[in-house]
Write a structure and sequence with these properties.
326 residues, mainly alpha, Glycosyltransferase, two-stranded antiparallel sheet, 8 strands, 51% helix, globular
C-alpha cells in the first residue's frame, strides 16, 4: 500500500469514526442563538479560525486540490465566521482583522450575473459531474453571513450591497447559473451542488437558508424573506426523505444505494436541526432530532449505516472513474 493510499485510508477512517479535525470538527449549536439578533453564528465556528493551510498575500486561505491552489469560497467563509466567533469571545484584534480579510475577499471576487453576485468554484467536481465554474448555495449563504457581520462591525455599506446581490443567486434556477431547483414541482430547494438531476444536499441547503435569514435580520428586505420562507417550507416538507432506518442521508441524489451520512455529517445534521428549532419550533425538527440523536449512540445502527455508506462510496468511485466531460 502506497503512502498516499495509507494517508487517504487514515483520513477517511477518522471521518467514518467521527474523529474531529479542522475539516470535520465537532460543531455544536450556538446555545445563545436568538432568532431576533445577529450574533455569533448558528453553530460554534471558532475552530475554523485556526486555518492549517497556506494563505495568499492578503491573508486569505488557499486550498490545495489536485496540486493546484484555489480560493475556495466555503473555506474562506468558514474561516471568516470562525474568526468572528473568536472575536466576539476574545475581542482580540487579530480575529477582527481576519473577519475583514475574508469579507474583503467576497467583495473583491464577486462575479456579476445581471444584478446578482456569484462566488465561483473553479474546479471540476467529478462526484456530481459538475464542470467549472460553478456556484453553491453553501458558499453563497455563508459568504452572506460573513458580509452582514462585517457590516455590523464596520457599518461599511459595500458589504451589505454585495450580500444583497449574492442573495439574488437564490432566485436563479440551476440551469440559468443559479442554485434554485424545484422538488415535486412546487417546493424550492437551494443546491450546494448544482447538478442537472437535483442532488438535494441537506447540510448545504440549511447553511444557505441561514445566510438568507442573516441578511433579512439586517435589511428586512421582503425578497430575501421570501427566498428564506420558500426554502423553509421545503425543508419542513422534505426532511422525512432524509431518514434512512433511523440514520440521516447526505443527499437525495439519484443512486441505487442511498447516500447516507458518515458520523461527522450525521452529527452536523443533528446540530443544524437544533439551530432550526431555535429559529422556528416545529414538531418535525424535534422528531428527527430525537430519532437521529438516538441512532448516534446505537452501535447496530451505526454499523449498518456505515456499511451502506462504504458500499455507496465504492459504487460512486466506480462511476466517477467513467466520467468524461465533452
Amino acid at each position: 500500500m502506497s503512502m498516499k493510499v495509507k494517508e487517504l485510508v487514515k483520513a477517511y477512517t477518522g471521518v467514518l469514526l467521527g474523529k474531529p479535525d479542522y475539516w470535520h470538527p465537532r460543531f455544536k449549536v450556538n446555545e445563545h442563538l436568538d432568532k431576533n439578533v445577529l450574533g455569533k453564528y448558528y453553530l460554534d465556528m471558532s475552530s475554523k479560525a485556526d486555518y492549517p493551510g497556506k494563505f495568499d498575500v492578503n491573508d486569505v486561505p488557499l486550498l490545495l486540490l489536485n496540486n493546484q491552489s484555489y480560493h475556495l469560497p466555503v473555506t474562506i467563509a468558514q474561516f471568516g465566521l470562525g474568526n468572528y466567533d473568536k472575536y466576539q469571545t476574545t475581542k482580540e484584534d487579530k480575529y477582527l482583522k481576519s473577519v475583514f480579510d475574508a469579507a474583503n475577499w467576497f467583495v473583491n471576487n464577486c462575479s456579476i450575473i445581471d444584478s446578482s453576485c456569484a462566488w465561483y468554484n473553479y474546479y471540476e467536481n467529478r462526484l456530481y459531474s459538475i464542470k467549472a465554474p460553478w456556484v453553491s448555495a453553501i458558499s453563497q449563504g455563508q459568504g452572506i453571513s460573513v458580509l452582514v457581520r462585517a457590516f455590523r462591525l464596520s457599518q461599511k455599506q459595500q458589504y451589505l450591497d454585495i450580500a444583497l446581490k449574492a442573495a439574488k443567486i437564490f432566485e436563479i434556477p440551476v440551469d440559468k447559473g443559479g442554485v434554485k431547483t424545484m422538488v415535486q414541482g412546487k417546493y424550492v430547494f437551494y443546491e450546494e451542488y448544482p447538478t442537472h438531476a437535483p442532488s438535494l444536499v441537506l447540510n448545504g441547503f440549511i447553511f444557505g437558508l441561514w445566510g438568507l435569514y442573516d441578511l433579512y435580520l439586517v435589511t428586512r428586505e421582503k425578497a430575501v424573506l421570501h427566498s428564506y420562507e420558500e426554502g423553509l417550507k421545503t425543508l419542513i416538507h422534505i426532511l422525512p426523505y432524509y431518514n434512512f432506518l433511523g440514520w440521516s442521508r447526505y443527499d437525495l441524489y439519484n443512486s441505487h444505494i442511498p447516500n447516507v451520512t458518515n458520523i461527522f455529517y450525521h452529527r452536523l445534521h443533528i446540530e443544524q436541526l437544533k439551530a432550526m428549532n431555535k429559529l422556528i419550533e416545529k414538531r418535525i425538527f424535534l422528531k428527527y432530532l430525537t430519532i437521529w440523536g438516538k441512532s448516534e449512540g446505537n452501535l447496530s445502527v451505526i454499523i449498518l449505516s456505515q456499511a451502506v455508506k462504504i458500499l455507496q462510496k465504492l459504487s460512486v468511485r466506480k462511476l466517477c472513474a467513467n466520467v468524461r466531460y465533452e
